[in-house]
Specification:
This protein has 155 residues and is α+β, with helices and mostly antiparallel strands. Helix content is 32%, strand content 26%. It has 4 helices and 5 strands; from the N terminus they run E-H-E-E-H-E-E-H-H. It has a 5-stranded mixed β-sheet with strand order 4-1-3-2-5. Helix 1 runs antiparallel to helix 2 and helix 3 packs antiparallel against helix 4. 32% of the residues are buried.
């Protein structure tokens, strides 16, 4: 069963608190665990970017819940693809606080194909997944040779 990936951004409704975001992420984590979906929600409290991966059916179910949620507005799909390795096996869902500028950079990054490059030129704009990787890595229990928990590949 091929892995599917979806990335979107949205704007929080006015007055949404970090405690409410935490509750939403816990609820999503429970549903995603059943659906085989993993991912991360990056937010500055006003805008969010969410990266999700999993089986097609599980991702469709998760995205349906996202589209119908009343906690945010203006959902914009940044990228969608099929295939490739699972890059975020760590959490069925976790939200991470990010600076507004880091979130803006992630939103405007290159999400075409959702891939990363083998070689990076210092002057190149990072791909979307490279930007997300840089924001997520500090929160992952990193083991030797850039591996995550139990030796899983690190982004």
């Amino acid at each position: 069963m091929p892995l599917h990936v979806l990335v979107y951004c949205s704007q929080a409704i006015p007055g949404l608190t970090f405690d409410q975001i935490d509750d939403l992420a816990k609820d999503a984590a429970a549903h995603n665990a059943i659906a085989g979906v993993t991912g991360v929600l990056l937010t500055d409290g006003k805008r969010s970017l969410q990266y999700l991966e999993g089986p097609e059916e599980g991702l469709a179910l998760a995205y349906s819940r996202i589209i119908n949620a009343t906690s945010h507005l203006g959902v914009i799909e940044l990228g969608r693809t099929e295939g490739g390795p699972r890059r975020l096996p760590y959490w069925s869902m976790r939200w991470l606080p990010v600076e507004t500028e880091d979130l803006r950079i992630a939103e405007v990054s290159d999400w075409r194909g959702l891939g990363s490059r083998d070689e990076v030129d210092i002057d190149q704009v990072p791909t979307g997944i490279e930007g997300v990787a840089q924001l997520v890595i500090p929160y992952v229990d990193v083991g030797p040779l850039n591996t995550g928990p139990r030796g899983s590949p690190l982004l």
